[in-house]
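User: My advisor, Dr. K., asked me to get a structural model of this assembly before our group meeting. I'm new to this, so sorry if the format is off. These are the inputs:
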Amino acid sequence: MAEVWRSGITNDGPDSNGGQVRGVQMTELMEKYSFADALLLTVFGDSFSTGQKRVIEAFLSGMVDHGIGTSSARAARLVASTGADHSAALAAGLLAAGGPRHGGAVGKAAAYFEALDKDATSAEEIVARAIETKERIPGFGHAVMKDGDPRATMLQQIAEQEGVSGATLAFATAMEAEFEARKGKKLPLNVDGTFAALLVDFGIPAEKAGVFFLIARTPGLIAHILEEHEREGKLRRLEYDEYSFE
Amino acid sequence: MAEVWRSGITNDGPDSNGGQVRGVQMTELMEKYSFADALLLTVFGDSFSTGQKRVIEAFLSGMVDHGIGTSSARAARLVASTGADHSAALAAGLLAAGGPRHGGAVGKAAAYFEALDKDATSAEEIVARAIETKERIPGFGHAVMKDGDPRATMLQQIAEQEGVSGATLAFATAMEAEFEARKGKKLPLNVDGTFAALLVDFGIPAEKAGVFFLIARTPGLIAHILEEHEREGKLRRLEYDEYSFE
Amino acid sequence: MAEVWRSGITNDGPDSNGGQVRGVQMTELMEKYSFADALLLTVFGDSFSTGQKRVIEAFLSGMVDHGIGTSSARAARLVASTGADHSAALAAGLLAAGGPRHGGAVGKAAAYFEALDKDATSAEEIVARAIETKERIPGFGHAVMKDGDPRATMLQQIAEQEGVSGATLAFATAMEAEFEARKGKKLPLNVDGTFAALLVDFGIPAEKAGVFFLIARTPGLIAHILEEHEREGKLRRLEYDEYSFE
Amino acid sequence: MAEVWRSGITNDGPDSNGGQVRGVQMTELMEKYSFADALLLTVFGDSFSTGQKRVIEAFLSGMVDHGIGTSSARAARLVASTGADHSAALAAGLLAAGGPRHGGAVGKAAAYFEALDKDATSAEEIVARAIETKERIPGFGHAVMKDGDPRATMLQQIAEQEGVSGATLAFATAMEAEFEARKGKKLPLNVDGTFAALLVDFGIPAEKAGVFFLIARTPGLIAHILEEHEREGKLRRLEYDEYSFE
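Assistant: The format is fine. Below is the predicted structure of the whole assembly, which you can bring to the meeting.
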């Protein structure tokens, strides 16, 4: 018995005329599809409206990099500094980017919103309880941008313009308002939380929500790898006064 | 002395208003940049003309997946079948995609064309010698598409339409014609060879040529990982009659 | 403020005379320590008795490989077939080996035994309930070795010889006996379950239990990578009749 | 046609009584083989004498970790800090460890010694030319241990004790002596160079020489991953004053 290797994604068989992805000729993808449209077709089939695609592309474009201070950029650059291949350094960066405390944030927030029974509870109730129990709700707050993340605001604007904002995002922004009302200071819905709420509104299961960040950040990690080679070009090794044995 | 972590890619400092990539606000990236434009800006800065960007985006869209028969898709799916995280399976797939015999093809072809002294030699001379010595020239031929890869043709068409085709691609297609004239059968310039020639024409160093494929294939690998979970969902392990001890 | 890089594992500072691991000179490790002793010292410090170390080394030696049918060996070989570096192929193999359905088995069984309140329940009770609810208990059963895994038996023998078998393994074997008594057929405690029970007896937290398998399997994966290069040496790509588009 | 999955490493078939590695029952590996002997059998079959095995085991034990300042330990810890799985962090560490400027040192030195035609040249000649051309010879010198690496000395002692030191190591130490004679200061044969020379004497091809370091360092990386979780336990992200946008 032979192992089963079957797929409905890409037909690259001898009669596929160069290959089709989800029924679209690859040559047509090349001629007529933006990369964002091509990749959404590949990963999710024909699942999204034009407006939803615009929101997702905005997230992809806005999350393409977040600087050298991130653990993913540094993991990638450390591996690149050893002279390893681009793909090896990229793999290391993505292994960091996938971690629950890093790029896993969208997925965690999506799981939270997905599990929320919006009919049986209210933003007021949830926020009151969270303040009481000091529960940390995923998708809210930012280590640095205490007054709100401009990327979150932009994503909400685009979703509204496109008319694709739904009940989950409405609930999430109601929670944000309630936090401010009760505490007198902001606990802003961040960009991960905003995008997570929108994905739930778009019908994407929370377990798939993390893949957008992995796609978005791949080019940023590659930018860091190329920059490490060009600007540094030697093995990173801490000097004796930069670490301690204790 | 503290280790040097410096970067010119992204400014995400406290006065960056949510962050800037290569001097462009992230919110502007979200609002106005396609993902393809955002990623090219991130990785290469402002290096490309609009026409060149269209060619590169066509390559990205056309290479987004090539089916479950590839070693990268299968490596990713094998790891996914163990129940590992998306990022772990993606990393495994990219480690395969970066291999010299897989996605390394564009880089090898680019290195070949970059090293070619087009003034000191001719397509005729090179092809004559290659036929004599049975040298295998990177970027030519395809295991299956013996009569030519429609994706290569499409990429050439777009490059011509956009007026960004240059001396390297002209040399490469002259080599293709010369092969056919001398052998009476095609040894087509494939999609990797076409793209490699164009990258050399665009001034991209061969050592960076491989990164486009890594970016392009990331979504395809993710599509396979999600499909593996949805359609298979259990550990892949060969049955005793599927492998042999010898 | 500089990032904190501190460690109590290895002192390799300028006055360490070539380096010390957990207080032992590296030259002494070389001269007097077996690799198993050196690695246990490195990972766990001075945590184990001689008898416990013998049990762990038996596990390491017995788990060094489990054939080409495993998903980890195949992921490693697929990556190796692309011509990627040894470390890239090894990383892919380990990403598979770490998956919950593959090498994660020891960790899952250890978590199960760790959580078990052996004073408040009995093997009889647990097995009766598991049979009723058809709950699958980690560490029991084997896809192929229905009558028991000789590796599990050997590990139990060595633990008994060394006098390091404790209450958790006793409980686990009582469960095994109870299963057979009630069902009239074996549901053997497998090698993962046996080792997991012993680790709990040795005081190793379940969250660390998975690392032994990663260490043990690294050489096996490397053996497969070298064999792939020597015996196959070309890109693995499925033929059209080996996969389907559906 | 089914893909070929064949292997001569491990027979785990239904009639293998629990499995055999290179013809040895796994239960026998567990009962009678040290982990070092089991792993050498797995990777290299019956290739080594007892004395050679002792030298290799000394290398494995001595290279098990080299502190938190290495790029591999830090890549692993960065990934661990994101909350990723042990295997993900380990994979990142090994991708660094495999880099040409890091663990690739043994392989480079082995390739150098393998290519050396010891009959047609002499240590004097090579050193004279290297000094003249300022060529950097792999396997010599150390960033910090200018007077010699005690680990190299120990490895040479063990090789001599065991009577397995051969012509390549003799040539390498002659080069070391010649350097000192000509320059008046040491350029010591380091531990990588010593081990590389011995591997060439043992008949191991240079392309396989790098795998010992990957095996040796796996436990050290795991030790760092566990320590990162226990002592740090939160996402590593640089503060604004720890990196710069420039």
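One thing worth pointing out at the meeting: The CA atoms of residues 82 and 175 of chain A lie 47 Å apart.

User: Perfect, thanks a lot.
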